[in-house]
Amino acid sequence: MVEKLDVLVEGGKATPGPPLGPALGPMGVNVIQVVNAINEKTKAFIGMKVPVTLTVDSKTKAFEIKVGTPPTSALILKEIKIEKGSGSPKATKVGNLSVEQVQKIGEMKKDSMLAKDKKQRFKEVVGTCVSMGVNVDGKDPKEVLKALAGGAYAGLF
Predict the structure, then answer these.
(1) Does one domain contain both 59 and 9?
(2) Considering the entire predicted model, what is its pTM?
(3) Are residues 86 and 29 in the same domain?
């Protein structure tokens, strides 16, 4: 029988303690081996919470690890090197993303976003910036979305 476990771990810093240890113990797998494999696969996301899906075959004790991408907001926070977004995004701006950083985040998330092309991914990331109080290209993100609809940034896509 195959058992599935979904957890949120800090990139590269999973431990045999909760939530992993207690969930893996009854499955009969080597907890340290699983934790080390998770840390190896998530080391690129150090400092961010990463969704991990673990599939364990209880007969053979074989396991498979699938690492999701962190939320767009976490990637934005990492890019501008702050702890959290603005409590009042309309009044207080907490940082600024360059157009290149927005594109980079869109590329990192392309497998898990609903957007089908680069322009749509760009808009989705900028939309997240609206709710976090993060400027884009030195402007309010709503202005960037309006400019994009008016044909600005056309050379990017």
Answers:
(1) yes
(2) 0.70
(3) no
